[in-house]
Amino acid sequence: MNNQQWSTKLGFVLAAAGSAIGLGAIWKFPYTAGANGGSIFLLFFILFTVVISGPILLAEFVIGRKGKTDAISTFKKLAPSTPWSVIGIFGTIIAIIILSFYSVVGGWILSYLARSVTGGLSGLTQGEYGALFDSIIANPVEVLLAQLIFMLITILIVQGGIQKGIEKASTFMMPALLILFVVLAIRSMTLEGASEGLEFLFIPDWSYFSGETMLLALGQAFFALSVGLAVMITYSSYLSDKENLGRSALSVASLNIIISILAGLVIFPAVFALGFEPNEGPGLVFVVLPAVFNELVFGGVFMFVFLVLLLFATLTSAFSVLEMVVASFSRGNDRKRKQYTWIAGSLIFAIGIPSALSFGVLTDVTIMGYVIFDFADYITSSFGLPLGALLISLFVSFQLKKEDVFTELSKGSSGPKPWMTVWYFLIKVFVPLAILMIFLQSFKLI
């Protein structure tokens, strides 16, 4: 049983949204959408969020609050003497891999933040921004030092626990980021030539339609909501029985879609207006946004504020992943929380070193044609998270009793609602079939 708990529903929603929004919406969505047709990718991302990853998010909320402990112990508690606990173990492994390369990107943000203070991001040509990014990620000392600092910040916050650490930080960070993103989107859309970027984002080009695009959009829907690796099982285990799980899931999923679209509105009009390519890759945000800020009055100040908030958003996602790993290690023993936080954080940093060096000294080391960083991203987002989500849907459908699930959903509300039946159908029938069909399609087996 967890001794920790969220102090307010808003704190939980903002922390869960922070876990979801982070780099998933701001960094990963634009470059993945840019490389996969823009509007087609967005269409499937929204569709899969609504009918697949959103329902899985609610399923994780149900499992987490019902178990009220870490992910591994939850499955052992709800399904004793069965192999279902493998879901928690699998999720913990995927979480470690995700944070290992995620912390590398967090380090890139710190590098840019340092340069924004010294003026190193001002007055460059558009081509020089690309060269700057390439030089940063190829510098082994800088990327490892920045990654280490990012993990140290994450460790220091997470060791403080739920209310004093994660919730307190998230309550400030997320509203501030949302406001700044709206300002940036307005400026980006008023650049000369921005309309081409809006067309790219909102007018479907069906030539990009493929099984691979659907699989990537599905992976993004899972990555962006932090579902499929049992992070939200851990977060919801700290919820009281007074909270309405359905409303919380709807709030988190809606915020995630809104921020993803806002990220697209910030990036793609600027990409086309300033002559960049939408398929720039993982460096898209780092190359395009400094050029956008150059078009603003007091652009250097705005750039600094944006990078601070982007760092905050990135940290909230890192908090959730490390919290899940620490909870699995400590098994509710708060006295050992600090010790396990440092052990888990150090382990994740060490595992992330090859990803950090992927664009420099290890650039020639590839797995299945991917550098180590890209392989870790691809294998977790396109396979690890969907597989985890599939197992979670099967667990809710075939291990938990339907009446127990509905009872959990009804807490904090006036009783069962018609939408619960629709959700249960999605979880039991549609979600497993959809994930399997997309897997088969991507492997060209159907």
From TrEMBL:
InterPro entries: Na/ntran_symport, SNS_sf, YocR/YhdH-like. It is a multi-pass membrane protein. The keyword Manganese does not apply. The chain crosses the membrane at residues 40-63, 84-110, 143-162, 174-194, 214-238, 250-276, 296-322, 342-372, 378-400, 421-440. It comes from the Bacteria. It is found in: Membrane. Keywords: Membrane, Transmembrane, Transmembrane helix, Transport. The keyword Transmembrane applies. Its main location: membrane. This is Sodium-dependent transporter. It comes from Jeotgalibacillus marinus. The lineage of its organism: Bacteria, Bacillati, Bacillota, Bacilli, Bacillales.
